[in-house]
């Protein structure tokens, strides 16, 4: 599993750089504009410059409305600013067809500029609370639109978590559908170290965190701490090794 960490400023990105060996992707967002709030282009550029060149930067385009042209321009802005992963929160799309239309525009805008960039269709585990597309529709939306990955996060940051809204067995189905479509699967949403056993069992490709590596576990008031990033990564790797060993034992026995 890859570890994605979400600083909310250049200063926090510098703290991430101190723990660069323990993380895989630095994510740029603006939490005060929503779960997948978009930050400024100059912040994306500054964070790209602040972290090691071999660490890809992802950027959220926002919790977007059903406005395909607007979203395509925003996604291109993120790519021009240096993001390798472009994540689009399909907040305002109420049907899969609307979501596919938005994502097709994003894919064309981004790939015309940078063919190697990775476009991620992002939905919400708590979609029932905001009226957007069902989480299990996301892998097919991503596949149909030519996106590279599908992601689940939580839309409303009120202390509830990924598994509170989308239980582990449903998340496992989400990951399976993504993999069957040849896509990356990413899971986030107030993920804690205690969730890593389930996430390793599920086999998601990317785990996204913020609060779990902030002082006091507070994604808003706390700041990212390099030692917490290192500890989270160590536990994540331990759980992945444990489940890989269990799977190998089962395969040998059969």
From TrEMBL:
EC number, UniProt record: 4.2.3.153
Keywords: Lyase, Schiff base
Domain of life: Bacteria
Broad enzyme group: lyase
Catalytic activity field: 2 D-glyceraldehyde 3-phosphate = 4-(hydroxymethyl)-2-furancarboxaldehyde phosphate + phosphate + 2 H2O
Annotated function: Catalyzes the formation of 4-(hydroxymethyl)-2-furancarboxaldehyde phosphate (4-HFC-P) from two molecules of glyceraldehyde-3-P (GA-3-P).
Protein name: (5-formylfuran-3-yl)methyl phosphate synthase
Species annotation: Streptomyces similanensis
